[in-house]
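Entry type: protein chain
Record version: 2
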Amino acid sequence: MMVSSGLLARLERSPRVLALAKLANVGITMIWGFAVTYVFVRALPLSEFQAFLLLVAFGNFTVSAEFGLTSIIYARLRRYWLRPTGEADEDDFRMEEIGFLFFLLIAMVVVAGLLLGGAMLAGWVSTGLPLLFFLYFLSSCINLPLLLVKRGLMATDHNLFWEMLDLVRRGLTLVVLLAVLVGFNLTLSVTLQLLLAVAGIGIAGIRLHRRVGMTKRHWVAIRRGGRHVKARYLRDIGSTMSLTLSEMMAYNAPYFTIAMATHDARPMLLFDFTFKMTRALTMVCRALMEAAMPGLTAAYYAHARDTFARLLFRALGVCAGAAMGAGFALAILGQFIVRHLFDGKIEIAYTEIALIVLLMLTLSTICVSVYLQGSLGRFSVVLKQSIPFLIGSLLSVPVALLIAPMVGLSFSFTFLAIYTLVFGGTAALHGISLARLLHGMKSAQ
């Protein structure tokens, strides 16, 4: 047991091993996302599948409604964990915070479940399979407390333990999902998926409990933990809530503005493809940054500016490399993918592919900045870059409508060009912010 623990600890310190584990998890997550659609569209009547899509959207909104609470606990616990031995904790971190936030996220799942139940009883969600829908919704929303224990383990240098646990959980979930295709009961499959998620929370929670030295009292001291969260979190919660809403609106706004601007399907489908590419790259960059974060945060809190700068530029290079790799694949397979993905309803030009590649390259810088500064608790700083991004996203369609006739280009291409410029400008703002972060470390020394 000591040998295995020692080996796990050595592997935990390897950014390459962590990156591989996290990328494997990203891969299985993507496969699971496609598999859900593949299985449910075949197992349900079309009318039920349409209702299921609304359920998925409601579930995604509920998971987003944690508004960065788990990011805050990561930043606070990480600072507490990395403080020098014997040094007082300036942030006054208390274990009761973890217990209160866990209780709060569980309460959010319960409330969301009650809202869904009410919506089904009122007929707003019309389905002949209420138990199936309810169980699937709970299995989605249970990601809220699961995310909390994940961030807790990450903050205490237990990344690899979490990734191994989650890989096993997701792998088993995928097996019970695909079993439906060979006759396994769909409701039973969803029930098992929910139980696997609960088991994952239990195992990870016990590990976190032992890792940080919590007691049972820390989990149930809800009032004390709540008072501490109220005293210490309100400013950060305001920033993370505003940031979450801003980014949700910025990334999704063109869906609505394009729909209002034109009935032509091509601009919408082109944006949908761009959106899918950005989401995929974002997941990859998040995995790469989570692998680099132990070293980056340790260097930052130790005021080791040179080490921090080296690791930061490496992270920027690795994420840019991932974007270029995706861009290279897109240049070769992009037209084929678009043609088959949208059943031949749209063709994409190489000039448009070039714009998407450029957009993804700028997105890699944005991802590094957002994930790093969020992990350091600099939420208000990230919010300052998010507001111009939101404004640019909202204006990209009306400006394209105005400019396209003047320059003699199609609305689709003009919009995509302006949207890429918005990403480029946002990346520049994030680059300036990262430079100020480095300069601030130098000044502190």
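Comment: Residues 100 and 277 are 37 Å apart (CA to CA).
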